[in-house]
Design brief:
mainly beta, Thrombin, subunit H, Lipocalin, 2 domains, 334 residues, 28 strands
């Protein structure tokens, strides 16, 4: 589907804070997942006191524009489409920038943008009352006018994932805490035009936000699903650290399928055999994005208690993992 392109298929609710508790949270260095749209790739990054958003030429890696946002802390995901780039913050709402030059179109106060289509921008606002579990209201804005088309109160649930699908919107909702064994999940299907509920699954209690079925994408041939399921079941020897991307059955993912204690790697896996066709080292991997035959990789996040790394963005040939270009983000980005 054309429209907005998500930088990440899944964004954990732990990454977004309500305005009242954002100031009490630690502020580590940030590198968000890249988002590729048209002939550009965009990424947000920064340190504790100042964050930036940069747009680079997808073919060459040359800088098109870069904007600095003092005392703004970007978090979660980027999404772009219809000439707009949406960037969420911890305490300052969501920024909507024009993708051609990075100028600010508007700021949505107390909102978190999840996804979009050709017609809608899907975001949540917070319902937070003393001594009550915080809940969300899902709102659909018209892309052209930014006026609300419908609102869907979700109390007592919070949004974990939003996936637009043609004429419907799939929403994964959660409540409770995984650490306390009280996490609950439910799946909601809405009509995109009106927000009307089509179906809702029975709430289930889960030990964590993700399972093997969540991590292994649907639509993969059985050789790939079988191999990944087997690897993921051995939690001591494997980890996945970013989006799983499926294209024509082939799978692209990051983490480490061979040694969970080693640095992160980006993999290209063939659909017909489940064989790892290529691998590319990406220490401190954040996430990946696919556009055409190019796979964009944001990496360089420092590991806990480790020396700092240089945040970087590189483009790989998705067919063989060859590096097409690589840039360092920050002062050296010219």
């Amino acid at each position: 589907m054309k429209g907005f392109f998500l930088a990440s298929a899944i964004a954990c609710i732990a990454l977004r804070a309500t305005p009242s508790d954002a100031t009490s949270m630690p502020m580590p260095p940030v590198l968000l997942a890249p988002v590729a749209v048209d002939d550009a790739v965009m990424v947000a990054y920064g340190e504790t006191d100042s964050h930036r958003i940069a747009s680079l030429d997808a073919g060459t890696g040359r800088l098109r524009w870069e904007k600095t946002f003092p005392e703004v802390y970007f978090t979660g995901m980027l999404c772009a489409g219809q000439g707009l780039l949406c960037a969420n913050t911890r305490s300052d709402g969501s920024y909507l920038l024009r993708t051609n030059d990075g100028t600010l179109k508007t700021r949505l106060s107390d909102a978190y943008v999840w996804a979009g289509t050709q017609k809608l921008i899907l975001l949540t606002t917070w319902d937070r009352e003393p001594n009550k579990w915080p809940s969300d209201t899902l709102t659909a804005l018209d892309v052209s006018t930014l006026r609300p088309l419908w609102r869907k109160p979700l109390a007592p649930w919070r949004v974990f994932r939003v996936e637009p699908r043609k004429d419907v919107i799939e929403v994964m909702l959660v409540r409770g805490w995984a650490e306390l064994g009280t996490l609950m999940r439910t799946q909601l299907t809405l009509r995109a035009a009106s927000g009307e509920t089509i179906s809702r699954s029975k709430p289930l209690q889960r030990a964590s936000n993700r399972t093997i079925d969540d991590l292994v994408p649907k639509g993969l041939p059985s050789p790939v699903r079988t191999r990944l399921s087997t690897l993921l079941a051995r939690k001591s020897s494997v980890f996945l650290g970013c989006t799983r991307i499926v294209r024509q059955g082939d799978l692209f993912l990051g983490g480490n399928l061979e040694d969970a204690t080693a640095s992160s790697v980006v993999y290209g896996i063939r659909a017909d055999t489940g064989r790892i066709a290529w691998r590319r080292a990406a220490p401190g991997l954040k996430d990946i994005a696919l556009r055409g035959s190019r796979l964009f990789v944001a990496y360089g996040l420092p590991a806990p208690y480790a020396k700092s790394r240089t945040k970087s963005l590189m483009a790989l040939d998705a067919r063989n993992g060859r590096v097409l270009w690589r840039v360092r983000l920050g002062r050296r980005l010219k």
